[in-house]
Write a structure and sequence with these properties.
Strand content: 15-25%
Radius of gyration: 32 Å
Number of helices: 29
Helix content: 40-55%
Number of strands: 29
Length: 856
Amino acid sequence: MIFRLVRMTLRERKAGLVGAFVALVGASALVTAFGILLQSGIGSGVPTQRYAGAAVVVSGKQSFKVHDGKTKEKPLAEPAALDRDLVGRIARVPGVRKAVGDVSFPAQVVDGSGDLVEAGNGRPSTGHGWDSAALGPFELSGGRAPEHDGEVVLDAHLAERAKITPGQRVRLATTEAAASFKVVGLATLASTDEELRSAPLFFTESDAARLSGDPGRVRAVGVIAAPGTDTGELQDRIEDKLHGQEITTRTGSDRSQIENPDVATARSDLQEMAGSLGATVILIAMIVVSSTLALSVHQRRRELALLRAVAATPRQIYKMMAAEALLVSGVASVLGCFPGILVAQLMRAALTTIGMVPDDFTFSYGPLPMLVAVFAGIVAAEVAALGVARKAVAIRPVEAMGEAAVDKPKLGRWRVFSGVMLFLLGAAASLLPLFFGSIFAVAGAGSGGLVMVIAVLLLSPPVVGLSTRLLARPVRRRTGPHGWLAVANTRANARRLAAGIGPLTLAIGFAMVQLVIPTTTAEAAQDQAEQGIVADFTLGGQAGGVPMPAVQDAARLPGVAAATGVIRVDLAASRAVLDSPEIFEYQGQGVTPKGLEKNMDLEVTDGSVSRLRDGTVALSTGAAGTLGVGVGERARLHLPDGVEAKPVVVAVYKRGLGFGDVTLPQRTVLDHSNRRLDDTVFVKAAPDADKDKVKAALENLGKRYPGTDVLDDAGLSAAQEDQATSSVLTSALPLALVFGYLAISVANTLVMATLSRVREFALLRLVGAPARQVMRMMRVETVIVVITAVVIGSVVPLLPLVTVSLGLTGSPVPYIPPLLYLGIVAATAAIGALAILLPTRWALRTAPVNAIGLRE
């Protein structure tokens, strides 16, 4: 009986359920897209190339654990290095034919004009020991293997591009000053004739160990299995042999994670993006679907009241609504999976464009994200349907018809209580940066802003009613009779209007919170970097950095007062919070301490960076506040390779956004990371030096280190601006999907609300109002809707944005790019106007005598 009634309802009430159907299709597409992002982050991304011939690849640990009562684990940006002694131990494992330790370091060909030769894919080439060629395996297509130091084998495609043949000498830029090597052979990967994603250069083992910067460690160990050995069993034997060692073993497509550090970083970024926004996406989808279903039920209140009046039980109403939601959500969620795949493909193209994902990174389009999307859509619809059905069954049958006859603006007590409590909770969280200078406070304020926006969505009918009362007098004064009618309509139908204004406000508020915090952070970081760099010149490298010997060479130049090398790395810190460890990710910098204060002004508030040496650290005020440490105390850090260290804090400084929250001696960073180039070298000229001569000397020094650029302050500012723009785009891109979904949902809701007024428009026309006056009235209503949504959506997030700005920059004025804000407002206004005016124009095409008889 219930399903028969449901089928009849769906057949006769198609228009009323179209809105919910569209919202569910969009939700399914969004969840599918984010699910594909997450699944792709778990997959390999690119095929294995240099390690294609290795059955098992062993690397250092890829995560670290923190124990504080409980245990938490955090992934590393790239695998830690391994002791070279492990190669011999792995070679003695039964089933291993050969174990090869692989090192990797920057190595690029320098052409006759002093420029670096890039491979065909635009990526820099890398250097390795010749023994690792067996892991491809690579074959000599000409010449022989390197036998003596100073000899090299080039990738055949790279040699063709550089027009080099065996027997010639070639100049190579590596981790040292550029030097000449003899090309003794050309190599190609046996399994393919295509160019590799990173062209290899093979050196003798002694040259490779020296140029890698750490002869005692290897990046990975490739294992070639004996014939007939099962790969899985060999992997287990290696892990048993190295029990107690912090290692990671990979087989199959997972070997690519060790071979390609950039792919590993992209995978981590995709997982973080999908994970951090996935829950938010599902929550927003539930809110939108609930709002749409609520409007649909509101339009059917007479029908539901009649069912209650003819003795339909609450259980039957619940079952009917649940069955409707199941049928609609099931079909809509399945259909939404297909556009979700298209959205994921567009996301991949966009992420590649901004550099977050390599251009050869392959997304994984398995069925799991689609199954999750269908399940999430059905659950969201069922929860929303049960929520909106609750009010329909709460009325006694004898009162049902009377309740349905009017549109009561009063909200239920629980909804009012929930909305007020959420708003107060969000406001309290938004104030945290005023009292605590830690990352907890900033994160809490950002979350508080979203909670406040959701609270306003719950309280939207009374908020909209208050707004229309405030706008009533100026609107009436400026718009004439049709304005009076528009105001009367909006005040009498606040709940119907709130169904459209609420999601519109959510879209603006969500976009403001999620976009303005990154722009404020990026702008503050750029300002701090510009103010804090007091160096006269900056050396930057086209090949991923500047070789470290350049720092000493620059410091010895005439007229140079100090040279400071800087390596930027990702690391972590931890502390116990309520008997549980909390891990915080930070951007850190390893610096050469000598002359640091002459090149950088970190705005130290306590201590001195002149005391920076092994076993010490300088922290930003934010990091120090988060970790609860001060000068003279020990901070618990987890270095880039996951090793725990407890250096003594010797300084606390303000400019953490521009320089990183953790400043360490460069030697510490080198001992615990795979970095072998300085990201930047700052150079300070002596007070009495001729800066033009110093710059000329630095440019001449660049000939020893090809690819090195000499930048002045303006050049540095441009680089900082590019980095800030990239960071904001990375934050904004996934949010564009959410905002787009909200926009579609808002338009969907407003169209539904407007089309439900066909009889109202007909009645106005029958009592003498021409169609053009009805359109004027609706234009005024549109203005009221847009102004209300823009004002509320802009004002509510201001509290957390101001407090976050205070916490990050010390200024109460957040950085809101004018074009960004105008774009949000313009998009909102366009959506609201089109979603109201186009359906109105369509509705007015029906003759009023015919429209007045239409069913609700």
